[in-house]
Design brief:
The protein is α+β, with helices and mostly antiparallel strands. It folds into 2 domains: about 5-145, Ribosomal Protein S5, domain 2, CATH 3.30.230.10; about 155-270, GHMP kinase, C-terminal domain (Alpha-Beta Plaits). The protein has 9 helices and 10 strands.
Length: about 270
């Protein structure tokens, strides 16, 4: 029996780098939400594990053990055909591969397969929070995930078509011992109060990423100029950026503006939750 799964884009509303362990892993404090746009996977049980990839961003996606979906299925002991419809840009800081792996583990868990607790983190630091796929606070090396209450946030996601290597961005950080978010997050009455608080937080990777890919700065500038944009920020280690808006109508209008000016950029109006 075929099983389908949805792998939503992961957006880091905040990303504070708070330290680095002796083994090289960075410590993070990040507020993470998920979009209603994402990749889709179909699982068909069989004797042998295989993956085929289609979609807008299929080119360059590995179809062997290098793919995190393969690693997740293999580690869980599942075999069969996996079809991945890739609509999220890879190397874009929105957790495409990690969300795909998490969707794989969720689908297999729903089919009654036993998923070891340590498995998600062993695949990647973003996989545990992608397993939750709802607004969460992610701390440590990605191992500490707790749900949070946030209003749904109308947003526009924009990627200029530039891949940014995560390792290079972390390596370019000037400081790795930065303050985290407050121990207790405030309650939010609505979008405006949430955005006002988010504007006081940071993505500590943004400066380093813009040095690696100057196009990120251009995207952020153009997002800030869209009508009714409340705030802009880069997600993850880049290169996808986002703007938040009062309504989905505002987000869709901004998508039209950006898309008309830059038809080669990936633009998606979405609701973050």
């Amino acid at each position: 029996m075929k099983v389908e799964a949805f792998a939503p884009a992961k957006i880091n509303l905040t990303l504070h780098v708070t330290g680095q362990r002796e083994d090289g892993y960075h410590l993070l404090d990040s507020l993470v939400v998920f979009a209603d746009v994402g990749d889709r996977l179909t699982f068909s049980p069989g004797a042998k594990l295989s993956i085929d990839v289609t979609g807008e961003f299929a080119v360059g996606v590995p179809t062997d053990h290098r793919n995190l979906v393969w690693q997740a299925a293999e580690a869980a002991g599942w075999t069969g055909q996996i079809s991945l419809n890739k609509v999220l840009p890879h190397g874009g800081g929105i957790g495409g591969g990690s969300s795909d792996a998490a969707a794989t583990l969720r689908a297999l868990d729903a089919q009654g397969m036993e998923i070891p607790t340590v498995l998600p983190l062993s695949i990647g630091a973003d996989v545990p929070v992608c397993m939750v796929a709802k607004a969460s606070r992610m701390r440590g090396i990605g191992d500490r995930v707790s749900p949070v209450q946030l209003p749904d946030l109308p947003a526009l996601l924009v990627n200029p078509g530039v891949e940014v290597p995560t390792g290079a961005v972390f390596k370019a950080l000037e400081t790795r011992d930065n303050p985290g978010m407050p121990d207790t997050l405030p309650g939010f009455e609505g979008i405006q109060s949430c955005v006002e608080w988010l504007a006081m937080q940071r993505n500590d990777l943004e400066v380093a990423a813009k040095r690696s890919a100057p196009q990120i700065g251009r995207v952020l500038d153009e997002l800030a100029e869209t009508r009714n944009a409340l705030m802009t920020r880069m997600s993850g280690s880049g290169s996808t950026c986002f703007a938040l808006y009062p309504t989905m109508k505002d987000a869709h209008f901004a998508a039209y503006e950006i898309g008309a000016a830059h038809p080669d950029w990936w633009c998606r109006a979405t609701l973050l939750s």
